[in-house]
Design brief:
By secondary structure, the protein is of the alpha/beta class. The protein has 13 helices and twelve strands. The chain folds into two domains: about 190 residues, Rossmann fold (3-Layer(aba) Sandwich), CATH 3.40.50; about 140 residues, Rossmann fold, CATH 3.40.50.2300. The protein has a six-stranded parallel sheet, with helices on both faces. InterPro entries: Peripla_BP_I, SBP_2_dom, TAT_signal.
């Protein structure tokens, strides 16, 4: 069974209904109580009440954001009781606000929103919630918890921790006591970049290590190559490098090859692209691992929105309702386990 299959089992297939709990508690009608109990015990893999789910996300101008939309559409297609109304991806905040307003006007059963700007989309998401439409906030958080029913996100701080712990372990195995560790970050004005760097720094510090040099790029291969070239010129010896983003990592690897330093140190990537996993499996580049920030969370968001729209919950949990927050785990993918994770690698 693949990792994605296991995830679907937990979120989409081993999920069962718990909704309409309030009705069961407040109604004196035996018929209503029986219907509620039946709904709670119904397997979510079987068809339930039809739900129209609205979906909006940023433009697919990056491998990860493109995979977000792809995962959402694929997951929705697995359910006979779901109709997905997916909007065209946009990085225009006003356009995305209008997209959400249109879906509110259409009275969709649930909304999945990955906001281009969480703060800017907060009020329109609160409006959806006030209209009785449960909102699943995907990854980039709104400024107010009242703007969503459930938040599902990646763990940016955890990414840094996982990368730092892996590098520290590798340095100890190589008996390198004072390694030169460099970091190629993403956009520094983004909270996610700051969180990743903070986690990386904290994990290294726990092992008595630190970052020797750090520069930020902007999540593109071009800037990744430019920044890495500068770091290589400034540091004549490097033991390990962490790059925050695998798309950016294409340029990082190009710079390393261009400098003929591809045998000198190990590299760890971030996010989990299929390209990175293929390189890790081949084991013929400095890239020895990548830390997951998987866009498969979008598929889980659709499953959660379906359950919210149907008034169901998660059978494997004692609580009857869908949880208020889900944070994915930042697993480290190496050549030893890459085959297990290849299915969630994005193009």
């Amino acid at each position: 069974m693949t990792v994605l299959d296991r995830r679907r089992l937990l979120i989409g297939g081993a999920v069962a209904g718990a909704g309409a709990l309030a009705a069961a508690c407040t109604s004196n009608s035996p018929a209503e109580s029986k219907n509620t109990a039946d709904q709670r015990t119904q397997s979510p893999a079987s068809p339930g009440k039809h739900v129209t789910i609205g979906f909006t996300a940023p433009a697919a101008n990056h491998g990860w954001t493109a995979a977000i939309s792809e995962n959402a559409k694929t997951q929705a297609g697995r359910y006979s009781d779901v109709t997905l109304k997916a909007t065209e991806g946009t990085n225009d905040v006003n356009q995305q606000i209008q997209q959400v307003q249109t879906m509110i006007d259409a009275k969709v059963g649930a909304l999945v929103i990955l906001p281009f700007d969480g703060k800017a989309l907060t009020e329109i998401a609160k409006k959806a919630m006030a209209a009785g439409i449960p909102v699943v906030n995907l990854d980039r958080e709104f400024a107010d918890p009242l703007a969503y029913r459930t938040l599902i996100k990646g763990d940016n701080h955890g990414m840094g921790v996982s990368a730092g712990n892996f590098i520290a372990k590798q340095m100890a195995a190589k008996n390198v006591s004072k390694p030169v560790i460099v970091e190629v970050a993403g956009l520094d004005n983004l909270q996610l970049t700051q969180d990743r760097s903070a986690g990386f720094k904290a994990a290294l510090a726990a092992h008595g290590l630190s970052v020797t040099a750090r520069q930020a790029a902007d999540f593109t291969a071009e800037t990744g190559q430019k920044v890495t070239s500068a770091l290589l010129q400034a540091n004549k010896k490097i033991d390990a490098l962490w790059n925050h983003d695998d798309d950016q990592g294409i340029g990082v690897l190009a710079a390393i090859r261009q400098a003929s330093r591809d045998k000198e140190f190990l590299m760890v990537g971030g996010a989990g692209s299929r390209n990175a996993m293929t390189a890790i499996k081949a084991d013929n580049t400095p890239l020895k691992a990548t830390v997951l920030y998987s866009p498969s969370m979008a598929a889980s968001a659709i499953s959660l929105a379906r359950l919210l729209g149907q008034g169901r919950g998660l059978t494997d949990m004692v609580e009857h309702e869908v949880p208020a927050q889900v944070t994915t785990y930042s697993a480290v993918v190496t050549k030893d386990n890459v085959d297990d994770y290849m299915v969630v690698g994005f193009a």
